[in-house]
Write a structure and sequence with these properties.
The protein is an alpha+beta fold and 486 residues long. It is 36% helix and 20% strand. Strands 1, 2, 3, 4, 5, 6, 7, 10, 11, 12 and 13 form an 11-stranded mixed β-sheet that branches. Strands 8-9 form a two-stranded antiparallel sheet.
Amino acid sequence: MFSLLEKILVEFRPCFSRKATFRWFVVAVVGFMLRPDQLGVTSIIRDLSLAPGGYESLINFFRSDAWEAGDVRNKWYHVLLKSAPLLKIKGRVILAGDGVKQSKEGCRMPGVKKLVQESEDSSKPQYIFGHMFGAVGVLAGTLDRHFCIPLKINIQDGLKAASTWDGADVSPESHIVQVIENAFEASRVLGRSFLLLDRYFLTTSALARLDELNRAYDKEHGNEHGAPAHVSIIARVKAGYAAYTKPAPRAPGKRGRTAVKGDPVKLSDLLNDDSRYRSANALIYGEYKKVSYFYADLLWGRKLYRELRFVFIKYDGKKCIFACTDLTVDPIRIAELYGFRFNIERLFREFKQQAGGFRCHFWTKHMPRLNHFAKRKDHDPLAHVSNEHDQERILKAIKATESFVLFASIAMGILQMMSLKCTDGTMKKGRYLRTPSKNGDSEATVMSYLRRNIFLMFLKHPDSFVTQFIRDKQLRKSDTVRDDVA
């Protein structure tokens, strides 16, 4: 287990020009893998017994210009391609994308805005102030046991005005388009892929951007015409949508423009047409079930009229519609693949509860104070920031927040790989589980095992660079012990 940690972390050395910054990177990732509480940077200092003076240094590390988040993220993709047992279907990796809203009360934190919660969970308020994160993950493991390893999680709303500033690594695109772009960025390293998305991602802007990226990729790599797209979307569809049949061929000699669409078709009417269904067995959400289904290739999207494969399926008294941009995929396979999308929801739960990946509070006094009573028509407060120094400090706060999430993502991914590769059952010993999993250890179990044994691992591997880096930052007898509050 310790050798796997070393093997992965050493891959990131070229991303840091200075050894000091690489040292803090190792400390941060290992700290995320251990900490039992979620009190920001303070918990990393406390749980690794680091010198109190390291608190300010670690805070500054997240804002540092000595390394680039893009380089670290790209290296993470290559590490997963090399070391993770990526789950592939028909030679394609499986990506999952979604958004998550995280409550934040900071009045001077970039990206914090009023958000609407669409969730049907009655425990969630309708409106919150916080960050809107977009996430893309990749499935690793086997059909019976797999994880969604985080690839890229970043703030995707509330920063549009900052995208025009000098040196800004902020996209002006919408949240939906950014998820498509992030998935395509990862697929350039991981290879041809399916992207699983929730129903609100099926928009004309998303499909148009996907087609644009696929065409550019094919042109760049000289792919044959008619070959499957580099990234194909599989998404759930709202029954209230309407699609169009293909236009009839124009009669010879008939004048006028060629029709781009045929007659409109309500998807709800097709869904309720029992005469079309046929029976089959399918793996739905990890269980083989008898389902009834049929499919139809229809045009979708006003002014876009993109041909999609719609799959209508019934099982256990439920009715669903799925859509796929690849018309060569078997309809049953489309329904089975969508069942894997729920893994990103489990990722969000573990990322919040175990790694505490969103529990940070990076702010700057140069950020305009949040107005809790602002109206929709009011201007973005970032649009009024014209001073270059203020802009620079705000961009550093944005980088610190996204870097915190990035390092937590890498830590979570390493925990998941440890769980997949260390299957001898030793990590469960000494930890009571009311309902032990039959499919291996969870991320929480791996974290619990590391907390109990990490310092023994340091003793067994005194020459390891991980051990040496952490020992260099730990308390010495001459240090004054004090408590820091994050």
